[in-house]
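Hello support,

Our group uses your service weekly, and this is the first time we've seen a run hang past the timeout. The protein is Kinase. I'm not sure whether the cause is the sequence or the server load. Input pasted verbatim:
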Amino acid sequence: MDAKLGTVLFGPDASEEKRKRMDKQAHETTTHETGLRLTGCQ
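Update from on-call engineer: The timeout came from a worker crash unrelated to the input. Re-ran successfully.
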């Protein structure tokens, strides 16, 4: 199982384009609301 913890998906040196893309992804998944996202499970 792979879990992502935290509400910010980009580093401080990320481009503006990446910041927008990752912020959109966070709002479309459980990352924004709970700070947790399960990304893979075998």
